[in-house]
Design a protein that fits this description.
- The protein is mainly alpha-helical.
- The protein folds into two domains: 130 residues, Helix Hairpins (Orthogonal Bundle); 58 residues, no CATH class.
- 78% of the residues lie in helices and 5% in strands.
- It is built from four helices and four strands, in the order H-H-H-E-E-H-E-E.
- It has a four-stranded mixed beta sheet with strand order 2-1-4-3.
- It is rod-shaped, with a radius of gyration of 41 Å.
- The two termini are 26 Å apart.
Length: 240
């Protein structure tokens, strides 16, 4: 096995580790954005429930005020009825009182409906508020963990990239250029072992004469089919 094949294999391993960490670093902000978006959605729903509860209370207060005004008006009408001089005037006052009393009953019925709605809204607000407090704690924990993980990953990336630069510098420039070309083509899979006379990656048979050159390990060679670097590890015979 040519010495540079070891460097290529090391470089491939480093690039795979770097790619994994890069992916993780890129995914963390997306994960945090996702849970923050969910939190914002829950906050908006809670705000809507609170607004509905406040509107319910305002409506009840207004209806209570309307009933009070209606009762005051009825009291005045009853006083005026005492001065009615004809049956027609008396009936007119009574009809107006009956109409106002119907309006009062409608308002009272509506207040009962609003009270029922208020109980449900109040329950929803209390439950959502408690759940939101817990969710905020979870999100804050996730944010902290993401910051710590990102810092750790960045430190690892700096270390791996330093090791990569050393490995690249140790490779002959033509081999380094070829490595980058293969990496771009195959997404990081840059080197393959010859097994049973075939490239272990593309599974194409290596020509016998070419295989002999690979076995000698005099130079770094590539697969004539897929272009990846090739190496051969002879099996070790264990004496019995």
């Amino acid at each position: 096995m040519h010495p540079d094949a070891h460097l290529v294999s090391q470089l491939q391993s480093l690039d795979q580790q770097i790619a994994t960490l890069d992916k993780e670093v890129a995914a963390l902000p997306k994960h945090i954005a996702h849970i923050e978006k969910a939190l914002e959605s829950h906050i908006r729903r809670l705000d809507a429930d609170r607004a509905a509860l406040a509107a319910n209370q305002r409506d009840r207060k207004k209806l209570d005020g309307d009933i009070q005004l209606h009762n005051q008006k009825i009291s005045k009408l009853r006083e005026q009825m005492l001065g009615a001089k004809t049956n027609e005037q008396y009936r007119a006052f009574q009809n107006e009182i009956d109409f106002i009393e119907k309006e009062i009953r409608k308002s009272e019925d509506r207040i009962l409906d609003l009270m029922t709605e208020s109980e449900a809204l109040d329950g929803n607000v209390k439950i959502a508020d408690a759940a939101l407090k817990e969710e905020k704690k979870v999100v804050e924990g996730e944010q902290k963990a993401a910051r710590e993980r990102t810092a750790h990953d960045q430190a690892q990336l700096d270390k791996l990239r330093g090791e990569r630069a050393t490995a690249v510098a140790a490779l002959p420039k033509p081999a380094a250029v070829t490595y980058e070309r293969i990496k771009k083509k195959w997404g990081g899979s840059t080197i393959a072992e010859v097994l049973d006379g075939r490239c272990s990656q593309c599974q194409i048979t290596v020509r016998p004469q070419y295989f002999q050159e690979i076995r000698r390990g005099d130079k770094l060679m590539t697969c004539e089919s897929c272009g990846r670097f090739l190496f051969y590890n002879p099996s070790v015979q264990v004496a019995m």
